[in-house]
Amino acid sequence: MIPADPDALAQAALGGDRRALARILTAVENRTPAAEAALRILYPKAGRAHLVGITGPPGSGKSTLVSAIIANAREAGRAVGVVAVAPSSPITGGALLGDRVRMQSYAGDSSVFIRSMAARGHAGGLAPTSTAAAAVLDACGFDLVLLETVGTGQSEVEVAAAADTTVVLEAPEMGDEVQAIKAGLLEVADIVVVNKGDRPGAQRTASQLRAMLVGSGRVGRREGSNDRPRPKEPEVLVTTATTGDGVPELMAALARHRQGRPSGADDPTRRARAAAQVWAILGDRVRAELEGGSRVATTEAVIREVAEHRLDPFGAADRLLATLRTGGQ
Questions:
Q1: Which CATH class is domain 46-219+229-260?
Q2: Which of 259, 20, 248, 38 is nearest to 135 (CA)?
């Protein structure tokens, strides 16, 4: 029987109970009080896993590559967790194609846990609670956690702040060479993978990307720009996920990138991720304070003044913050 108490649920998940883990992830996705209680126990036990973001345009083969990475990691005896973000149903809000058919061969493997999460309209390629879900998997002993984005195009840069290593997929002969030069998606890449390497043009695409990413130090950097160059140029690899070709080389590149990063609080990516989590929670709590209890009337009156253009939004924010400072209504 799955315990209902959040503390017992967290302890059960830490002990390897996958049903308890699934229930915690459902609570996290729905942002329930039980999720907060469980995360208070689990979060201090996280921070050991390698979080790898897998992103790229539709058709580049993200899910197939994730499946190939799982196979390689399992051969090495590693436990793998996957947070696969899918488009949301406009009717139920749930994840479309959430079963991730390509990964179902691991359904009976207790050392693999795959969770589909609905994007729920959240921009940036991830779901609002993807980072928290990754922390839960990390705490529960999965030493490799893959974050697969929804796959909607070049705006999926949020994964770079959520992952220790960001892998950007490109597919050959997609007619996107010119667009790739100025794509923000490539600017966040730690490793660039040309997938579907058995197709004509794969090696040519990889060569073009290497030429573009070497020398200037920054993708699409404008001549005369004062932008700081990249501290490190991403590796460009070729894989064929359907056969596993190139996947061992990708795993080696992931290991090199992880070894080259600072640890703990010295890692700027982890600090940025921590800051984003804290600010998001703080923002939610401030809003809850202003939209609940005795402050509802004050908040609605201030918003009405803004709607009627009798008060600007900045003045409205100042006034509402003042009610929190003074404890007023």
A1: alpha beta
A2: 38
Enter the pTM of the model.
0.82
Domain locations along the chain: 1-43, 46-219+229-260, 277-326
Q: What is the spatial distance between Cα 216 and Cα 170, in angstroms, rounded to a whole number? A: 20
Residue 98, classed as helix, strand or coil, is: coil
Q: Place 110 in a pLDDT band, splitting at 50, 70 and 90.
A: confident
DSSP track, 54-69: EE--TTS-HHHHHHHH
Tell me how far the alpha carbon of residue 87 is from its chain's centroid: 14
Nearest to 160 by CA among 280, 278, 269: 269
Encode burial over 172-182: b for 16+ CB neighbours within 10 A, e otherwise: bebebeeebee
Cα separation of 151 and 57, whole Å? Answer: 5
pLDDT classification of 220: cutoffs 50, 70, 90: very low
Q: Decide: 60 and 195 in contact? Cβ < 8 Å.
A: yes
Spatial CB neighbours of 53, under 8 Å, sequence gap ≥ 6: 146, 147, 149, 159, 160, 162, 163, 165, 166, 167
